[in-house]
Amino acid sequence: MSNLKHWIWLSQRKGVAGQAAVKVLEYFGTPEQVHTADRGAFELMGGLNERAIRSLMDKSLDEADRILGDCD
User: Fold this and answer.
1) Integer distance in angstroms from the first to the last C-alpha of the chain?
2) Count of beta carbons in the 10 Å neighbourhood of residue 2
3) Rounded Cα gap, residues 26 and 3, in angstroms
């Protein structure tokens, strides 16, 4: 379930859609690794604007939990 939770978390990040989401996943490998990455890793990756980085730094899984709860 945690893998699905992290996919949902990533899909809810503002400013990280389309090509940006693909690039982030290619760089980090999995949504879990994106979730655990710090600001420095996102800056080192390059190609992300400040809005996307701020969104990725929001590590709360509350929205993903809510979505999964709605699915139950």
Assistant:
1) 12
2) 11
3) 16
